[in-house]
Fold this sequence. Notes:
Layout: E1 5-8, H1 14-25, E2 29-34, H2 38-49, E3 55-59, H3 65-78, E4 84-87, H4 102-127, E5 133-140, H5 142-145, H6 151-171, E6 176-183, H7 196-205, H8 214-226, E7 235-238
Parallel strand pairs: 1-2, 1-4, 2-3, 4-5, 5-6, 6-7
Domain Ketoreductase: 4-196
GO molecular function: 3-oxoacyl-[acyl-carrier-protein] reductase (NADPH) activity
InterPro entries: KR_dom, NAD(P)-bd_dom_sf, Sc_DH/Rdtase_CS, SDR, SDR_fam
Amino acid sequence: MAKKVVLVTGASRGIGKAIAVKFAKKGYNVIINCAHREQELMQTKKEIESYQVTCAAFLGDMGDMAVCEQLFSMIRKQFGSLDVLVNNAGIDYIGLLQDMSPEDWDRILRTNLTSVFNCCKLAIPLMLPAGHGKIVNISSVWGCVGASCEVAYSATKGGINAFTKALAKELAPSNIQVNAVACGAIDTEMNQWLEEDELIQLVEEIPAGRLGRAEEVADFVYHLGYKGSYLTGQVIGLDGGWI
């Protein structure tokens, strides 16, 4: 039986890397992508290949449709199919909205939201002939409730949440499920800018009493990508009871 195929964007480190490694451990062939961190991406590729699966690494901005088309052309040639798409690529911007430049706004919108449109648009034609598929979008609790000084980030994640619910309805008759994981505070590089006292304060706000781990997100995403054909259109919080 042919191995299943998963694409994980933003997979050079953090949550994306953990997800890609999890699927590799479960015997999936894996395509990984990131925009800039080539060295880290190749390191992730090496780690994935240690699980005796095929791994293709692609460097490029998924917010750029022309670049995204190159990636999907490679997927068609090398794998011929795609079972699971995990849209994880994302960047943050912390600061007052009034200080944000239009260029920063465009960049975060393109990286976090347009990338999801691009990848879904190109993945669907690969999934339709197979009669099944899973799309998992990595969102954030800030997409559900908003965060001060992270207005643009919150807007992109809120967009992902609405996109998820709408696309799920569109694709449900084709047996393609679309869900999102609204992550809380996860222990990755994205949160390493916090001072120690800020971190302690944050952890005190979380009922579970700790940050989440990237591996916990990966376990949950794998479950969504592997099972549950009746579960679709959901934005599921993974936040230790925080929000």
